[in-house]
Specification:
A hairpin with a 2-residue loop joins β1 and β2. This protein is of the alpha+beta class and about 150 residues long. α3 crosses α6. The chain binds FE2/S2 (inorganic) cluster (2 copies). It holds the Pfam family Fer2.
């Protein structure tokens, strides 16, 4: 068994240590927010926070997450929508939604470190998050709005 903390709860996984963290979250813990799209570290749809830093959970073996703190998109709305989530809603930014859990986890971390970003900085922060619906401008608008209303 591998012990780890997920969204503030102590959890134990029966999966092998090389199992991608993404699969443990989705298939064992039924936290299906993080999406399996490329499984190659390319698209960012599987992004979660590991000890507070965004990571591609498809590339993190469970063993590397042992004893560490994982936060998934499910935790963002624990007390109602986060400011960023509300801004995405207000800007009608979500299309198919596959990229959004990753977008939110990346931007949540980015805005924590960069509370007053420029448009170019938001775009650069999203370099590792691919939206195949290509709705980038509204996503950037929403991130800037969320920063302004903080
Ligand atoms: S599914 Fe992990 S980066 Fe694409
Ligand atoms: S909203 Fe469809 S991939 Fe981004």
């Amino acid at each position: 068994m591998t012990a780890l903390t997920v969204n503030g709860e102590e959890r134990a996984s029966r999966s092998g240590p090389m199992t991608p963290l993404l699969d443990v979250l989705r298939e064992e813990f039924f936290l299906t927010g993080a999406k399996a799209v490329c499984r190659e570290g390319f698209c960012g749809a599987c992004t979660v926070h590991l000890d507070g830093e965004p990571v591609a959970s498809c590339l993190v073996p469970l063993g590397a997450a042992a004893g560490r703190e994982v936060r998934t998109v499910e935790a963002l709305a624990a007390g109602g929508l986060s400011r960023l989530q509300q801004a995405m809603e207000d800007h009608d930014a979500v299309q198919c939604g596959m990229c959004f859990p990753g977008m939110l986890m990346t931007l949540t971390d980015f805005l924590r470190h960069t509370p007053a970003p420029t448009r170019a900085e938001v775009k650069a922060a999203l370099a590792g998050n691919i939206c195949r619906c290509t709705g980038y401008e509204r996503i950037v608008d929403a991130a800037l709005d969320a920063a302004r209303s903080a």
